[in-house]
Amino acid sequence: TPGTKFPTLGGCIAADVHGKNHHAEGSIAAFVESLDMVLADGSTVRCSRNECDDLFWATLGGMGLTGFIYAATLRLKKVPSAYIRQRAIKTANWAETCRVCTETQHEYTYSVAWIDGLQTGRKLGRGHVLLGEHADAREPKGKQPFAIHGEGRWAVPFFLPSGVLNAKSLKVFNALYYHRQVRRVADALVHYDPYFYPLDAVRGWNRLYGRRGFLQYQIAVPYADGAEVIADLLGRIARQGVASPLAVLKTFGPPSEGLLSFPIAGYTLALDIPLRDSGTIPFLRELNKTIVEAKGRVYLAKDAILEREDFAAMYPQLRQFKAVKRKYDPECRFRSCLSDRLGIT
């Protein structure tokens, strides 16, 4: 499941979404058995691993460019309760954060790390690694074992003035958040909603960024030299003064066969970047060059700035995807601003 509970199932399939368990169980592609689709000419087709498999793997991660998904067959995972047995590990720096994430990924089904992205020097990359397993129905004593989530508890009723979220204010917030956990290791029983979807607790949270808005920027790099590459990115971002209120690290397992699927075995870092001035986008495009050199990639589901030459370098199966698209949509009736910008259509 992705980091919010509000996307559509078709959108999740089109992005081949991943969650906090990719290192253990893969992306949503691992759970999709078949897709019923309406093609560009109006015909219908069922695709799976065994029939029209080229269309199947082009659609998983294909960003909606292969046709309409009107039905999907999935295998669901049976869980014993609505609660997660969480272990939070406080880390002092980037090296420790990466070490904890990699050493525990075979011990826990769910893993995610909050990173203090504004620190430099010895404190660079400090954070909280949140590990999780499904709790048995007997563990939430005095509670309904399958209690469903409620509405968001808070709401942001208006856009904040631009500049409220700046490096100084966010450094204070991050320090308070980091030090709220006193012990290095803290165990707790938490409902699935705050564990999987923490931002959903605040309705209209995007208004915190003001009317200028923000960019979501997520990258993945292979394990080989990946920790060093992301450490370099975090340092450059901090020195640039680009204040990211949200910095999240996860580990990925083996990729799916989706031709444009994002996850690769390695680390993935997700950032929310306020659009404070005209220099933000050129700076992020410079970072993209580093990601290309590291044989990494940018997540298309969150992308708004990637350039087509970098995209082609990041996704080596692009040519194969284009061939499948020509086969099922020769007139490019399914297109988007993203596909036009990246040269897919």
Describe this structure in words.
It is a single chain. This protein has 345 residues and is an alpha+beta fold. It has a domain of 97 residues: Uridine Diphospho-n-acetylenolpyruvylglucosamine Reductase, domain 3. It is built from eleven helices and 13 strands. Strands 8-4-6-5-11-12-10-13 form an eight-stranded antiparallel beta sheet. A three-stranded antiparallel beta sheet has the order 2-1-3, with helices on one face. It has a two-stranded parallel sheet with strand order 7-9. Strand 1 and strand 2 form a beta hairpin. The longest helix has 15 residues. The protein is globular, with a radius of gyration of 20 Å. The two termini are 29 Å apart. The model has no long low-confidence stretch (mean pLDDT 94).
What are the defining features of this structure?
345 residues, alpha+beta, Uridine Diphospho-n-acetylenolpyruvylglucosamine Reductase, domain 3, 8-stranded antiparallel beta sheet, 3-stranded antiparallel beta sheet, 23% strand
